[in-house]
Structure formats: structure tokens, C-alpha cells
Amino acid sequence: MFPNIWPLWLMATLRTGMSATVPEEFCGGIFEAESSGDIRVPTHGSNYSPNLNCRWEIQAGPDQMVALVSTEWAVEESPGCTWDYLEIRDGWENSSASVGKFCGYKPLRFLSESNKVYLYFVSDGFFQDNGFRLTFKTVPKDGAVSCDKVITRDEVITSPGHPSRYPPNQVCLYRVQVGSLKCTIQLV
Ligand SMILES: [Ca+2]
């Protein structure tokens, strides 16, 4: 057992030690009136900075939700995303539901349930990746303008205008929340 634990302990010690010696860099922002925007993580050279604690808050109108899509996404991958990660909360309160911690290289797609989204990015002091760029937009919950949609019951999901051809230049997010199943599907 001991020889197997040693490398993990050494890596954890190195990471903790390096995190403690580098000063924290401010980053983040609040978007309260914008209907769309970009969120980027600070970078040094081609990678994001070490020891980041970034917080972004996005607020849409009372009858709106927030759609998030990554156009660039490379965050150091770790088991359970414990080293570097972006955490998404659906709402601004401490009690707001955490959607999860995200890392790795799989593009990020998210459609909120509430009209507020809280993003928290953390990087440790050991190894950085290229980082991310997220675009957000606020969309009406009734789907009057956008093709984004929330599915809460058994329903066939169709593309805009189905059975006719869908229009060009569409990006549609479908948030499926039926029982314990939760996922986001994207049509590009
Ligand atoms: Ca890292």
C-alpha cells in the first residue's frame, strides 16, 4: 500500500506548497445589464495564470434564463475536477444549486433554470492549460425569440421549424430536467 500512496502524497504536497507561495490574482466581473458577452480567464503567455480565484455573476431579466457556450475550453483535467475547475451555480446565493465542477477538454454547454448564474474558476499552482472563453446570452423563458428550451416532461425534442428545414446560423440549447435526469443538449 505505502509505495502506491507515496506519489500521490508527494504531488499533493507539491501542489499545496506551490499554491501557498504565489500571490492571488484578481479576476472576475458582474454582468447585470448585458444581453450577451464574453468571459475569459486571465492568461500568462498561452496558458491561464496559477492560483486564480475568479468569480463572475450574470443576471438576466426576471423572465429570462442564461445560456452559456464555450468557444475555447482547456482546463487541466483531474479526478473530480479538484485541481483546476470552473464551478457553475444556478443562482447567486450560497444555497444556489451547484451544477457541477468542470475541467478537461469537452466543450461546455449550459442553460440555467433561474435568471442568475454564478461562475467560480480556481487554478492551483501546478500546471496550467490554455484556459477558456465562454460566451453567454440571456434568453426569454417562453422561447419567443430564442430556440433555447427547457424540457421538464416526456416530450419529443425537435429542431426549430421541424419538419421543415432548420434556419441557418442557429445555436439552440435544450436543458432536459425530467426526474433525476439533467443534461444540456446543443444544436449548432
Ligand atoms: Ca493546475
Q: Features of this protein?
A:
binds calcium ion; 188 residues; mainly beta; single chain; Jelly Rolls; 5-stranded mixed β-sheet; 4-stranded antiparallel β-sheet; repeat; 1 helix; Sperma_CUB_dom_sf; 14 strands; CUB domain-containing protein
Strand content: 35-45%
The CATH homologous superfamily of the domain at 21-141 corresponds to: Spermadhesin, CUB domain
| Helix-strand string | HEEEEEEEEEEEEEE
Termini separation comes to: 49 Å
| Strands ordered across the widest β-sheet | 1-5-10-7-8
Give the count of helical stretches. Answer: 1
Strand runs, count: 14
CATH architecture of the domain at 21-141: Sandwich
Pfam family, one: CUB
Disulfide bonds: 27-54
Signal peptide: 1-19
InterPro entries: CUB_dom, Sperma_CUB_dom_sf
